[in-house]
From TrEMBL:
Residues 258-299 are annotated as: Disordered. This is arginine--tRNA ligase. It comes from Streptomyces nigra. NCBIfam families: ArgS_rel_codon. Residues 237-378 form the DALR anticodon binding domain.
Amino acid sequence: MTPVELSRTVLGAVRRAVDDGVLDVAVPERVKVTAPGPGGCGDYATNIALQLARPAGEPPLHVAEILRTRLAASDGVRDVVVTGPGFLNITLGGAAGVDLVAEILRRGPRYGFVDEPSGEVAHLRAPCEVRAVVVMDVVGRLLRSQGAGVRTSCEGGVLEGEWITVLGVPGCGDEGVPGQAASSAGHVIQPVPAPASPLHLGRDAGRWALLHPAGHDRPRISDEHLVQREGNPLFRVRYAHARIRALSRNAADLGFRAEPGAIEPDGDPAHPAGAPAHPTGAPTPRNPQAATPHPLLHPLADHPRVLARAAAHRAPDRLARHLVSVADAVLPLLPAVLPRGAEKPSATHRARLALAEAAGAVLAGGLSLLGIDAPEHL
């Protein structure tokens, strides 16, 4: 279940409470779900009960309890806990994770993209400075991924041709939507300029050096972005993608492929550590609905929201940091994906591979939006 789908589920609980006559409020158009804050728990949280308490004329905790019982009965929701003054903390069921992985594998690198045009045409302008133009290029890609049309233009000079060929930016010419006239209005992309040319870093490391810091931060143009070790965030992201692709090839050689299944934090979808034994001696299978979601599912589910916010705030750094979080969450899973020794491929391995490939699709799609290669080998 993605954050968008969960938002609709919460909204459905509000509608049912209104239809049942236990809440007298106007049903909002949308409900915001976020990661739980301090003191929270579960996978997501929402403050909808606090928002509705005053118009409903009820204490927030009472509204939260009304919504909790209805939300807990929704498909894909395993548990709902009320914390603080009335926050609803939601834990998704294992089956919701299975559906999420299946959806990501179906959509591939376009997971999180909006298929229908939004009707918006964004006008982006930037000075002809290398960081500003690279950021504008990626903001345009992000906006297009969310269904918007984009016009871009540069002002005040000519970007060096070598920078265009090395970094893959479109240059300083006007690029736009057919039938849309240029406009002096629009959003100006003007991050803190790069202190030096990133040419010597090449396309991937050069773009990362310009995009990973927030726009108000000064980028570091140094060889640290080329270092092939864990301390380099770009290396971790690209290494995670390459490892996942290698695992898919190795799995094919072993005669099995990905199949979404409920995976618990220890990586075993059917036999979690500490599970009570069956009378025959085998671990007792668990109901997927009762399984604890794997920690990798949260950043994967959050990907569409990250893309939408990165586009809305014209902030590619949000996507870059998100890709690092996905890579860091998937890397501990990878050693357990393939069978070991004489072990034969099982549903466990197929489920682990599906989860890893879902992370690979998110990494590939995100790197593509940043204009950075997602390597098959590294």
